[in-house]
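Good morning,

Attaching, inline, the backbone tokens for the sequence recovery test we're adding to the shared suite. The designed sequence is right after.
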């Protein structure tokens, strides 16, 4: 169920199309080949997701986890594309020799734990949805995605991208697309789509911070740190602290994310710039969280979660709509005149988003 507009899962990847487009045009086949194949695969999967959604072909989950425990299953695609692949680890099984399988299993568990312990949410759908993932998807596949039903991880090409299970925030990012799917169901285009992406970055970052026991001041606020190969001039896919600074590379180009509305990017590509303009609400969250200090999931994260799941956020919400609801949520949870309300209001002011 969703609170707005019905059940409408979308196909969401962590690497933006504009990054793969740039790589696909490179003169070196070792770089362009995997990027081209990834773009083609993503396009096919996106079309398949649209068809299964429209005609209700997606299979419903057949089992539910205990309310306070995850139910994880990891599959190995063995570098093929049939999903889910061969089952290699189930809930409670001991770690095996495959580090990728073990990281996927741990990342699913960390995501489940953050949502349960911090927000009393039982899995992605709030009702114990089993957490399924497939690793070693395709050959040299440069992405990870949530397809409306499960997580899928590529191994990367080894030249630009490494194994997509390495950054725990990538796992958390993609699973949060599932949380959004089951709650506000934000339309995946333009500002609603950028909010959709931002929610995944926010909670992906919080899952990493929760796992590491970091405060807002201690966190790096990077999304995908450790994913880029050593030859790449960059530190991550995105920076919430300093949007537009995650990478500046001869092959990848420069990180195009804006930090404020002054640099908002108007484009028809990337579903209206969902991976680009998400830098603005990302930065607002960073500003609010660091102003409040302590563990970011406790105050700023709680406010953002209240808005995402509260039922008032329209599936076509614009930045101003979302900002206004965060102010309302801060007031309702923490009261008037407190530091929480002031931090949220100031954060949106600093990024140039008006509060209606």
């Amino acid at each position: 169920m969703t609170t707005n507009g019905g059940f409408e899962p979308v196909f969401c990847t962590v690497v933006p199309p504009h990054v793969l487009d740039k790589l696909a045009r490179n003169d070196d086949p070792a770089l362009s080949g995997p990027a081209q194949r990834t773009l083609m695969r993503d396009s096919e999967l996106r079309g398949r997701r649209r068809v299964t959604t429209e005609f209700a072909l997606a299979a419903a989950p057949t089992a539910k986890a205990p309310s306070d425990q995850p139910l994880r299953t990891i599959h190995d695609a063995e570098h093929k594309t049939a999903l889910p692949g061969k089952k290699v680890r189930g809930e409670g099984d001991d770690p095996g020799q495959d580090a990728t399988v073990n990281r996927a299993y741990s990342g699913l568990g960390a995501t489940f734990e953050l949502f349960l312990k911090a927000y009393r949410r039982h899995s992605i759908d709030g009702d114990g949805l089993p957490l399924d993932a497939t690793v070693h998807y395709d050959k040299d596949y440069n992405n990870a995605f949530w397809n409306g039903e499960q997580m899928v991880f590529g191994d990367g090409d080894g030249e630009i991208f490494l194994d997509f299970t390495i950054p725990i925030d990538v796992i958390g990012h993609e699973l949060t697309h599932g949380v959004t799917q089951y709650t506000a169901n934000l339309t995946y285009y333009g500002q609603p789509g950028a909010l959709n992406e931002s929610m995944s970055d926010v909670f992906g970052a919080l899952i990493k911070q929760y796992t590491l026991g970091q405060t807002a001041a201690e966190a790096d606020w990077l999304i995908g740190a450790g994913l880029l190969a050593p030859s790449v001039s960059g530190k991550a896919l995105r920076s919430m602290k300093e949007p537009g600074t995650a990478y500046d590379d001869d092959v990848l180009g420069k990180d195009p994310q804006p930090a404020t509305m002054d640099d908002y990017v108007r484009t028809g590509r990337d579903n209206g710039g969902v991976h680009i303009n998400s830098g603005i609400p990302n930065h607002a969250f960073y500003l609010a969280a660091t102003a409040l200090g302590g563990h970011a999931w406790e105050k700023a994260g709680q406010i953002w979660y209240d808005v995402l799941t509260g039922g008032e956020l329209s599936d076509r919400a614009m930045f101003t709509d979302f900002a206004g609801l965060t102010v309302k949520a801060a007031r309702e949870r923490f009261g008037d005149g407190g530091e929480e309300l002031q931090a949220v209001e100031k954060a949106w002011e600093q990024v140039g988003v008006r509060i209606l």
